[in-house]
């Protein structure tokens, strides 16, 4: 019954009744009034009955139609109000941003959470609110969206008006108008708390509570990754196991509190003396592990092991106690001492036990051959420390000739070490040691000064002009006073700066620091030329050739091997020559040993060469004979 009454009184019925009544009355009146005026008899029912019926039907229909229209308008407005209400009161941060970054509109949660007023928001660009660290990837995301890409869930750090960062997570979408991208909408949630909780859980699961170092679980993970990277990039990797000697005594005599502080001190010292690539972890107790990874060229593990022993052996002052510790160190090298993480850890552990059972305060390699190498390496290191003052270093010079002018145009200075017991040692064996120990700084300076002096003397003796190429280590480029060292060497000797060329390897440019870059530009502005040595063996990138002050490329000798029968090598050499010509760089090939190689190169417009075919590296007194021989050969 109630339903029936509801339906009866529902809007369309009322609209129909009211409008049909009104229609009937209006038409009845309109049909009666003219008749009355004409004096007609209005008692005749037909005179107003028919018009009223028509009026009632038309009015009823009009009523239904107007009721519908009214109801639909009303529904639209209330829908808009509800949406606006929903948008304004949503707890998520909602924003719409124009394609140029202007904020078009934001909701209340956005304004209140980030602390900006309406008038401030009108003047804001979205990048004023995003943390500068995130600008780059946010721009990329914007561009990708506009280009038709899909951005799923995105994390971004916003800065509140008071400067506090807030980590937000949300969805971003592109809005179109007239089929054109119009604006970017995003709905974000504050996930700072969730992130903090996750970080806490991560910290508890992967880090040691006492020292804050990675624990065994994280160590395993890092080691597995390091092994994979080592395989992929052909790097070196070592696992160093450290156990403190007699640590139990500290705990037993001074108590666990002092023991804990001591472990924290050791952890701090170890982690601050290694590179970011290396992992310093605590296994528990007094056991630490260091994973040495990502080493490209020089990998002087004995030196590193000694450094660890020295670091641990520094006296510690803890709550009034002066303590001196020592450690036992075991080392396993990938892949010879273990192909996986478990084997490497076990073998480094065994090596550590060998070191401890021998005498403690020492290190031991897992394999015997490595032990022998380690001893040799240390001998080299100790010997090298005194090589300059004991006058055991000397320089050989190798001629560089130009087949076009048929002349010796310059020489490369190549360092030699006359070891009292081991005899002549070539740089490949000791430059890495010098770099690892930092001795390369003084050795490099010595080479530069000595070579400039010797070349000036030779020029006067021979009456010809020679340019001098000197090899520079990447470590020297990290020395702020390098420019001074070069200037001194030039001034002392009187060699014009244009006659000096410094050879650096590609890796120096790839791993460039701003300081190294600055130095290169300063060196170049002195007039000194810069060459890339062993070109093609590193990360040959057109980018650095374009951006750095480089004058010459030296094609690595490995590409000349079998060049007539190895199409790949021939193609590489041809490409390097063509590329240098296009970029306006000089090019020289090193390691030319045969007549065929020389012909191949000169046929391809590479006229400058260096190699045993023309001359071996010789001491200054033999340069005259050697360059005469080279000259004869090219005539
Ligand atoms: P590098 O600068 O690429 O020098 C060329 C090397 O190739 C020299 O080896 C040279 O003797 C050798 N070589 C030249 N022509 C031929 C040839 O036709 N066939 C073959 N098989 N080899 C040839 P060296 O003198 O043993 O020097 C090796 C590397 O040691 C040098 O490579 C350079 O990177 C480094 N080095 C030498 N002296 C210094 C120095 O004073 N400072 C620094 N930082 N590194 C140096
Ligand atoms: Mg060189
Ligand atoms: Mg070279």
Helices and strands in order:
Layout: H1 2-8, H2 11-37, H3 46-89, E1 93-98, E2 103-106, H4 108-114, H5 118-122, H6 126-129, H7 132-146, E3 153-159, E4 165-177, E5 180-190, H8 192-206, H9 216-233, E6 236-244, H10 247-254, H11 256-272, E7 279-284, E8 287-295, H12 301-313, E9 316-318, E10 321-323, E11 327-334, H13 341-358, E12 362-365, H14 368-385, E13 393-402, E14 407-419, E15 423-425, H15 427-437, H16 440-462, E16 467-471, H17 482-493, E17 500-505, H18 506-510, H19 514-525, E18 529-535, H20 542-547, E19 552-555, H21 567-582, E20 586-590, H22 595-603, E21 608-610, H23 620-634
Parallel strand pairs: 11-12, 14-16, 16-17, 17-18, 18-19, 19-20, 20-21
Antiparallel strand pairs: 1-2, 1-5, 3-4, 4-5, 6-8, 6-11, 7-8, 9-10, 13-14, 13-21, 14-15
The structure holds ligand C2E and magnesium ion (MG) (2 copies).
Folded structure, characterized:
There is one protein chain. By secondary structure, the chain is of the alpha/beta class. It has 4 domains: 2-86; 90-195, Beta-Lactamase (2-Layer Sandwich); 207-366, Alpha-Beta Plaits, CATH 3.30.70.270; 385-634, TIM Barrel. It is 51% helix and 22% strand. The protein has 23 helices and 21 strands. The strands form 4 sheets. It has an 8-stranded mixed β-barrel, surrounded by 5 helices. β9 (316-318) and β10 (321-323) form a beta hairpin. It starts with a helix and ends with a helix. The model has no long low-confidence stretch (mean pLDDT 88). The structure holds ligand C2E and magnesium ion (2 copies). One magnesium ion is lined by residues 533-534, 554, 590.
């Amino acid at each position: 019954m109630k339903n029936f009454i509801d339906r009866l009184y529902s809007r369309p019925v009322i609209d129909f009744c009211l409008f049909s009544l009104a229609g009937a009355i209006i038409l009845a009146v309109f049909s009666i009034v003219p008749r009355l005026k004409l004096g007609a008899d209005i008692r005749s029912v037909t005179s107003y009955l028919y018009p009223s019926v028509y009026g009632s039907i038309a009015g009823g229909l009009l009523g239904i139609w107007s009721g519908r229209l009214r109801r639909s308008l009303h529904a639209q407005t209330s829908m808009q109000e509800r949406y606006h209400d929903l948008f304004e009161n949503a707890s998520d941060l909602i924003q719409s941003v124009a394609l140029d970054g202007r904020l078009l509109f934001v909701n209340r949660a956005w304004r209140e959470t980030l602390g900006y007023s309406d008038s401030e928001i009108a003047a804001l660009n979205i990048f004023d609110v995003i943390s500068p660290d995130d600008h780059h990837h946010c721009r990329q995301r914007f561009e990708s969206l506009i280009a038709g890409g899909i951005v799923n869930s995105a994390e971004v750090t916003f800065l509140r008006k008071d400067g506090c960062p807030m980590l937000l997570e949300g969805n971003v979408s592109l809005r179109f108008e007239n089929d054109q991208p119009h604006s970017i909408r995003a709905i974000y949630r504050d996930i700072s708390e969730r992130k903090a909780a996750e970080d806490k859980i991560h910290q508890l699961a992967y880090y040691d509570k006492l020292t804050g170092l990675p624990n065994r679980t994280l160590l395993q993970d890092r080691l597995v990754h390091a092994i994979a990277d080592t395989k992929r990039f052909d790097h070196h990797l070592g696992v160093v196991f450290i156990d403190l000697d007699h640590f139990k005594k500290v705990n037993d005599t001074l108590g666990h509190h002092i023991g804990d502080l001591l472990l924290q001190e050791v952890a701090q010292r170890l982690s601050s003396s290694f590179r970011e690539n290396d992992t310093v972890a605590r296994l528990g107790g007094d056991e630490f592990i260091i994973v040495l990874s990502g080493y490209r060229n020089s990998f002087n593990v004995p030196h590193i092991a000694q450094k660890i022993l020295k670091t641990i052996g520094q006296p510690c002052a803890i709550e009034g106690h002066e303590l001196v510790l020592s450690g036992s160190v075991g080392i396993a090298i990938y892949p010879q001492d273990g192909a996986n993480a478990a084997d490497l850890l076990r073998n480094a552990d065994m090596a550590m036990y060998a070191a401890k059972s021998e005498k403690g305060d020492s290190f031991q390699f897992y394999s015997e051959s490595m032990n022998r190498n380690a001893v040799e390496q240390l001998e080299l290191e100790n010997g090298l420390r005194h090589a300059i003052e004991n006058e055991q270093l000397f320089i050989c010079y190798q001629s560089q000739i130009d087949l076009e002018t048929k002349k010796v145009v310059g020489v490369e200075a190549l360092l030699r070490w006359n070891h009292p017991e081991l005899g002549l040692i070539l740089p490949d064996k000791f430059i890495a040691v010098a770099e690892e120990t930092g001795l390369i700084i003084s050795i490099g300076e010595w080479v530069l000064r000595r070579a400039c002096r010797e070349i000036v003397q030779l020029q006067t003796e021979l009456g010809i002009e020679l340019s001098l190429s000197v090899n520079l280590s990447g470590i020297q480029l990290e020395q702020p006073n390098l420019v001074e060292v070069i200037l001194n060497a030039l001034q002392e000797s009187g060699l014009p700066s244009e006659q000096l060329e410094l050879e650096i390897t590609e890796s120096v440019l790839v791993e460039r620091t701003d300081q190294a870059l600055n130095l290169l530009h300063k060196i170049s502005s002195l007039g000194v030329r810069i060459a890339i040595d062993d070109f093609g063996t590193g990360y040959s990138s057109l980018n650095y050739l374009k951006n750095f002050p480089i004058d010459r490329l030296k094609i690595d000798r490995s590409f000349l091997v079998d060049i007539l029968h190895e199409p790949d090598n021939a193609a590489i050499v041809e490409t390097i020559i063509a590329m240098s010509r296009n970029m306006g760089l000089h090019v020289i090939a090193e390691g030319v040993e045969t007549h065929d190689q020389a012909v191949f190169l000169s046929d391809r417009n590479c006229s400058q060469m260096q190699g045993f075919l023309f001359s071996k590296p010789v001491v200054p007194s033999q340069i005259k004979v050697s360059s005469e021989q080279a000259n004869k050969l090219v005539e």
